[in-house]
Amino acid sequence: MSYQPAEAPRAKAVALISTGTDLLRGRPIDTHLSSIAREVLPLGIEIGSHSTCPDDLEAIVETILAATSKAETVILTGGLGPTEDDYTRRAAERAFGRPLEFQPALWKTIRGRFRRFKIPIAAINRRQAYLPRGAWTLPNPNGSAPGFGIDHGGRFFFALPGPPHEMLPMLRTHVLPRIRGRVTFKLWESKVYGIPEGDVDEIVKPIVEKRSGASYGLSVSGGMVSVSVKFETGSPAPTVRLLEKALGIHLIGPWTLAEAVAGLLLKKRRTIAIAESCTGGQIASALTNYPGISKSLLEGWICYSNASKTARLGVPADLIRSRGAVSREVALAMAKGAATTAGADIGVATTGIAGPSGGSIEKPVGLVWHAVHYRNRTRAERRVFPGDRAAVKGRATNLALDLVRRALLE
Amino acid sequence: MSYQPAEAPRAKAVALISTGTDLLRGRPIDTHLSSIAREVLPLGIEIGSHSTCPDDLEAIVETILAATSKAETVILTGGLGPTEDDYTRRAAERAFGRPLEFQPALWKTIRGRFRRFKIPIAAINRRQAYLPRGAWTLPNPNGSAPGFGIDHGGRFFFALPGPPHEMLPMLRTHVLPRIRGRVTFKLWESKVYGIPEGDVDEIVKPIVEKRSGASYGLSVSGGMVSVSVKFETGSPAPTVRLLEKALGIHLIGPWTLAEAVAGLLLKKRRTIAIAESCTGGQIASALTNYPGISKSLLEGWICYSNASKTARLGVPADLIRSRGAVSREVALAMAKGAATTAGADIGVATTGIAGPSGGSIEKPVGLVWHAVHYRNRTRAERRVFPGDRAAVKGRATNLALDLVRRALLE
């Protein structure tokens, strides 16, 4: 076993710090890494490390020192509020040896905001008007906690508020422009659906390996494989064309499956109706995240009971009796019934056993039938998904959406 | 501004390390911190820090060294596969000065697994049979990558695979029993809905401050406030009773709103039907995550178009014309129509403008009407939610579920 020379993505990288004891207790799930990565990657900037530390002054100071020793730019989130356990200002004071100084102009802004919203200002809010010496204010139009930036001998430190809807606009407006000048690579990212990770690897590997200065990574989640290819030099275009051709119908693009399907529906001006049993509304909910989808999505039914499958979608009761509610025939009848009843071009349906109980040897937990009805043609797919109830719902939602996508692309 | 003595949760805490360049690129979102926190907190163990580092040998070694200097127990995830960039075994070798040694018994287990699944084994898989000297194997019944543990002079290091469905069973079976003996505190956690964070703080603060050895934290997400109270000594029961009484109807419990509502529906044997416009299936999808809910949830409709509100739910067309689709009257008619059509005890409905377009001065983006019909009584609530389309859908889903919860509790 040999030691490979380690790839060192640090020099041009950003170190990210999340503060918050609640994050270390797992609630809420920390989405800062993911959302900041999506902002900086298109600029050719990698996040080299991410640390989460508790609301504890010493721990934050140590984490800042460790991060600044490794990365040129450090972005920290949280701890900017007015209370005792909002330590970020004091941690920066200690880490950079820059004493906190009262900023009259900032105090005026803070008071103005309270006056505008007609909220009485508390004495503790004065703490938010202190910044480490030499820091500049990052205005926060979406909340009361201002951020700040420090240029510490060419190393940048940015402190941003914890709530994502305050943090992200501040990042985009006041942080990204400062670190933008360092683009060093291009990234191509896409999701791939319908073939296992190993097969994706076998397709991607030879194409990327032929291209000098390119490297790739794969990750899997809920049956969806994400591919990202990093190009250190030159244009990605020829390699991307090869990848697109080789991955073919399985290539979804950088968006989610629901976004891909919603985009196709609107582009092709097709209407859709949805009949869900075991996915329980998740297909409709995923599609309705897409702005403007009301032009295409006419109706949806959650038909848990057999009676509702018959009454709402016209699935013959004796078909359910003879084949069972979880069957190819009933899935197809649901899809057709949805399209016909709603007067939609496409009908999509799921029926299955999400678990944890209700399974049998013939029809185990995780069994789902998915069906699509489009242009008088129907197609159905059976699958037994692993995982718990939520996992089965999620995977069935993806497969149903993919059936619609393929039908639209044929 | 004074320096408070920092609370030091480290001594009894676990340090967590995630490895993976893909995680630092934000895909997938790293859920390890959240899911491991939920496992160890009930045992009285805090996670003192969490770091994510790239697939880079030096970075992993440094992160392990930093973590072991701070915490008695270090749990690392990822990097146990057979490929070149699976560095965890080599990083542990370096960090602890324990040379990798071939484990014939482990190699036999790995080969056996491949044979059982009739997959030809590659030469590189032999790498997975090397462990740092003195390490013990953590069997992986759910994947090909075995984990390992090291007792380094009383400090424990555990290396677990990255995929959550492999990591969590291994954590529960082979890690938690080893660190269980250190329970030092009790944690009470609950969600609170319907009052702002500041009001929750005003209620919780005086109760917790009166109790010695207790501290609390609040966090907010999507209009939901999470409260966690930590008791270092004694029984939490008297304080918890005070909190429960003071928070009253706003107290949801440790579960989600959808779980609370689903549990109430099943306990009280009430049936429900759902009519969703702007939430687009999200209410139904949230409820159907609950096992056994098919006993209570009869049917759901996603009625995006005005025509479908009339055809499926019997909302009078001239009511929609005169009041508008987004109105108290139409929301109430949808809720009643859903209950009546499905023959359910309860009907719940939403109609609103999720955005980003479609708003007016009178009816801005984010405006949602929520309605519940139960026992011949109806109630409706209007709200203008901030945030993007997904945020509006999520907040409206919560409020609609809370209306059902309150109706059931009256």
Can you give a write-up of this model?
2 copies of one chain form a homodimer. Chain A is an alpha/beta fold and 410 residues long. Chain A folds into 3 domains: 14-182, 3-Layer(aba) Sandwich (Molybdenum Cofactor Biosythetic Enzyme, Chain A), CATH 3.40.980; 186-253, 2-Layer Sandwich (Alpha-Beta Plaits), CATH 3.30.70.2860; 257-409, Alpha-Beta Complex (Maf protein). Helix content of chain A is 39%, strand content 25%. Chain A is built from 14 helices and 17 strands. A 6-stranded mixed sheet of chain A has the order 2-1-3-8-7-6, with helices on both faces. In chain A, strands 14-13-15-16-17 form a 5-stranded mixed sheet, with helices on both faces. In chain A, helix 2 packs parallel to helix 6, helix 3 crosses helix 4 (88-96) and helix 9 runs parallel beside helix 14 (389-409). The first copy, chain A, is elongated, with a radius of gyration of 26 Å. Chain A starts with 13 loop residues before the first strand and ends with a helix. The model of chain A is unreliable at 1-11 (pLDDT under 50). Chains A and B meet through helix 1, helix 2, strand 2, helix 3 and strand 10 of A and helix 1, helix 2, strand 2, helix 3 and strand 10 of B.
